Amino acid sequence: NDGRNTEKLLQKAEQTMTLAKARSRNRYQFYIASVDSEMRRRRELEKDLREALPGNQLYLVYQPQISYRDHRIVGVEALIRWQHPEHGLVPPDVFIPLAEQNGTIIAIGEWVLDQACRQLREWLDQGFTDLRMAVNLSTVQLHHAELPRV
């Protein structure tokens, strides 16, 4: 008895379909009661994600890229993190798909590129002249008309 009326049943079917699509393409999902709580959490995170950038909740960490030959650091990869004020650290594999779905990935991506370039400039000014910076882009960003401008 997943729905007492047609409207409720269709709502639960829609939620379940949305969850199945968010998890992966080409799969099916049965409705279970936990779907409601998972969908509520997704909606809450999606809403909160819109405030993450203006609320200074996003930050970058830099993973070193090491030369196999001489074990020197030759570059870094900029990786975004979200420190949620209530939920703590939200993994990128959770919030990046949400950002792609709600369109905030464009502003977030511009911020990442700006911050990564500023950090690289700072390191270059400090004498790390051979350092390279890698930044991940989503397919949504790659298809966005503004990318060449950034």
Automatic annotation (TrEMBL):
<feature type="domain" description="EAL">
    <location>
        <begin position="42"/>
        <end position="150"/>
    </location>
</feature>
<dbReference type="InterPro" id="IPR050706">
    <property type="entry name" value="Cyclic-di-GMP_PDE-like"/>
</dbReference>
<dbReference type="Pfam" id="PF00563">
    <property type="entry name" value="EAL"/>
</dbReference>
<dbReference type="InterPro" id="IPR001633">
    <property type="entry name" value="EAL_dom"/>
</dbReference>
<protein>
    <submittedName>
        <fullName>GGDEF domain/EAL domain-containing protein</fullName>
    </submittedName>
</protein>
<dbReference type="InterPro" id="IPR035919">
    <property type="entry name" value="EAL_sf"/>
</dbReference>
<dbReference type="GO" id="GO:0071111">
    <property type="term" value="F:cyclic-guanylate-specific phosphodiesterase activity"/>
</dbReference>
